[in-house]
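Amino acid transporter
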Amino acid sequence: MPTSSCKKCDPKSTKGCLIKNRLLIVSMIGICLGITLGLGLRPASLSESTIMWIGIWGELFLRMLKMIIIPLIIACLVTGVGALEDKASGRLGIATLVYIIVTQIIGVMIGIMLAVSIRPGTNLGDEAQFGTASSTEYGDTFADMLRNLFPENVVQACLQHVGTEVSSNTSKKNAGFATNLTKPSKLVIYKDGTNLLGIVVFSLVFGWRVHAAGEVGKPVYNFFVGVSVVIFKMLTLIFWYAPLGIASLIAASILRVEDISTAFLSLGLLVLSVVVGNLFHMLVV
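Tokens:
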């Protein structure tokens, strides 16, 4: 039985396959165009203002994705869990919560090990310091993850997440002997950046309870169904803009890099870290 995507599209010709995968094809064209444009314009030594206008279309693409990601996650999770039976949605919610916690813990551990061993980005000129973080700082990372699972304010979770900041306070122990005592202090603060973990947990519980509300909760469920349909329509438009955005991002990035060979080496190490981490996570975890 044929399994290739082209045969599924149109057994008699490749036209159906090309039509079905046209978004992927134009995205690949955008990548090639961005690399060609960036490498071709490097000898011109363009000004920062010109590079900004080349890259602004990619910046707009990233802004579109960030704009739509939170409504997309909330609508999909609420409608997905809300469509299940009460017992099934409860089990699914608990299983999903446990899965998120366990995979996040394992993911953080894998990320730390790969960052210390492969050290991507160390060839860019900035000296990165590895091995200086104590075990308590790694413990703070896990504690922050648990705090972010249950945000104090859902609206704030769309903009900020919890993080532990470590600072060293130096004080004089004895003025007569001029002895300084350095004592690290930890402060739990809010940092800029979406708290996706908290939003996912809230959406799962919300969808679970919407179903449990019965007939009273149906208008709420139907509202999120409509939101999800509209969001996917918007997402289709953004995907069609993706080739231009990708080409713009790649071209501007190549033009801003001083040493292209070092940048590609660091990028290769980063890609290696991501690929190894994902393979380990998929095959082992």
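The CA atoms of residues 168 and 250 lie 40 Å apart.
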